[in-house]
Amino acid sequence: MRGASPILIVGLAACSILAANIGARADAAQDCRSGIPDARVGGCSRLLAEARTARQRAIALDGRCWAHIDRTAFAEAVSDCNAAIRADDQYPYAFHNRGVAYAGLQNPSAAIVDFNRALAMRPNFFNTLLNRAKAYLALGNTQAAMRDYEDVLRLKPENEEARSALALLRGGGPPSSPVNAANSLCGSSGCT
Q1: What is the pLDDT of residue 59?
Q2: Where is the signal peptide, in residue numbers (predicted)?
Q3: Is the domain defined by 25-122 classed in CATH 1.25.40.10?
Q4: Long-range Cβ pairs for the range 82-89 (8 Å, 24+)
């Protein structure tokens, strides 16, 4: 690039760095909320490095936990959720997400313990109720699962997943939609 201006060279270097991080945004908080798990891990890691409070650390670690769940890296998810809980044991989402990770590791009993902790802090967290119902089903506790599905419908009467599962458990026929990753116990295709 003989004769190229220094600004052009710097600009090209910046473009090559951005191209290497496709999917990453300039804002760590946006990346931490990204629908792309790898971008979320990077963004949440950057937020963690900038965190000044225990709650900020918990939020960043919990974001990484959820990204690991999306990648079906459940052991890594548990590790990040454990760190989030150590940072702020009053942050209910970390307990919920660790429960989902335990479900992915095929440990519904541990998942239920964490779902109970999350619900103790946030009783109307319908996603936690849905996940706890699935964990109860994995353990064969149909009555407890039915109670959770009923509670979901009290909070969200339009929730088709709870309605279908409850109909099936009551003997009302097959669910209206097939079981898929979105309504599996851990929410990912790598587990049931």
Answers
A1: 95
A2: 1-19
A3: yes
A4: 83/57, 84/57, 84/58, 84/59, 85/58, 87/54, 87/55, 87/57, 87/58, 87/61, 88/54, 88/55, 88/57, 88/58
With 0-12 CB in 10 A as exposed, 13-18 as middle and 19+ as buried, what is 69? buried
Q: Which two tokens stand for residue 43?
A: 């963004």
Q: What is the identity of the amino acid at 176?
A: S
Cα–Cα dist 23/52, whole Å: 26
Whether the predicted pLDDT of 85 surpasses 60: yes
Return the amino acid letter for 62. D
CB 98 within 8 A of CB 106: no
Tell whether the model's pLDDT for residue 26 goes beyond 60. Answer: yes
Give the tens place of pLDDT for each residue, 123-165: 999 999 999 999 999 999 999 999 999 999 999 999 999 999 9
- Position 71: which residue type? R
**Which amino acid does the sequence have at 101?**
A
Pairwise CA distance, residues 110 & 163, whole Å: 26
* Orientation of helix 142-155 relative to helix 160-169, angle to 10°: 150
User: Look-up: residue for tokens 């541990």?
Assistant: 110
Pair of tokens at residue 34:
């990204």
pLDDT value at position 184? 54
Tell me where in the chain the CATH 1.25.40.10 domain(s) lie. Answer: 25-122
Structural contact between residues 164 and 177, judged by C-beta atoms closer than 8 angstroms: yes
- Alpha-helix residue ranges (DSSP H) falling in 23-91: 28-32, 37-50, 54-70, 74-87
